[in-house]
Amino acid sequence: MLLASSTKPIDANLSSLAAQIEQQNPGLSVLAACQFRFAIRQTPLEVAISEPREFNVLEEFILRAGVEFDPAPTLQELADLLGLDEIFVKTAATNLVKLEILEVAENGKITLAPLGKDFLDQGAVSRSHIQSIYAISDPLNQTLSFKFDALPAESVNLPDLADLISLEHQISDLADLSIAEIQPLIQASGLGIHAPENGKIVSKCDVIGDDLDIWQIVSVFVLLDAIANKTTIQLRQGKQILETASNRLNEIESQQKLLNELCKSTEEIAQPESETIPVKKTRKQPSTAARKKKKE
């Protein structure tokens, strides 16, 4: 008969999942299961995002006046022409000056800045704003992703997985990355702030604070495949299997240290387990003579 779960080193809060794994996978046995904590690294960032903005009607009129009027008009003359209070024209002109599209002389005369004509032809200008985001480096899954909101920092009272295996961050220091290296990583995170096809570009990225370790919980299962006669390690967060991390852990040399720590009596458990796990066999067909004898 199969060894009872109580005789295996399986955490009580993982016993139900261990039983489910065995039920859904005939020929597979959970030798051990334990929870660990591991730290992901959270880094606060500020990014500058440039995106196009169309000119409003008044802005476009001011720019066209700067190109088509000769001599160049003053802001007061434009206000009189439009029948507006000069304050509205001055406000629109000030925005264009800040965008480095328009120049206004002391006497109020307007001229287009060197790139003003290009922006006018495009019908839009590139504006920039600052956005706070967080970089999340996961050494177990070897990923670097970005989020708008900070992850909660909570205390987790579990053994540290880093004491048993080497966990190295994919990116050691974000400050060493160029903006060209950061842009595709931000785009892949799905934040929508770097979308070149829509004209939105992350043009700058600065680290604005210290790294913070955020503890995560991971479940480590030691599985025996009786058919292949092979012991493997499987990592899960909740019920989700961490395929990349599991494959990596099964490849590195330090897995033996983890195996020894997880189930100190694995050798004693694995042998009787492999002998008692039912394995499907091909049913042997009776011979022709036997079938004839049965009919008689």
Task: Give a brief rundown of this model.
With 296 residues, this protein is of the alpha+beta class. 32% of the residues lie in helices and 28% in strands.
Describe this structure in words.
The protein has 296 residues and is an alpha+beta fold. It has three domains: 5-34 and 223-276, no CATH class; 40-49 and 129-214, no CATH class; 56-122, Winged helix-like DNA-binding domain superfamily/Winged helix DNA-binding domain (Arc Repressor Mutant, subunit A, Orthogonal Bundle), CATH 1.10.10.10. Helices cover 32% and strands 28% of the residues. It has helices spanning 15-24, 57-68, 75-82, 86-98, 116-122, 179-188, 243-251, 255-262, 266-276, 288-295; strands at residues 28-54, 102-104, 110-112, 124-138, 143-147, 201-207, 212-225, 230-237, 240-241. Strands 1, 4, 5, 6, 7, 8 and 9 form a seven-stranded antiparallel sheet that branches. Strand 7 (212-225) and strand 8 form a beta hairpin. Helix 3 (75-82) packs across helix 4 (86-98).
Question: What would the keywords be for this entry?
Answer:
two-stranded antiparallel ribbon; 32% helix; Arc Repressor Mutant, subunit A; alpha+beta; 9 strands; 3 domains
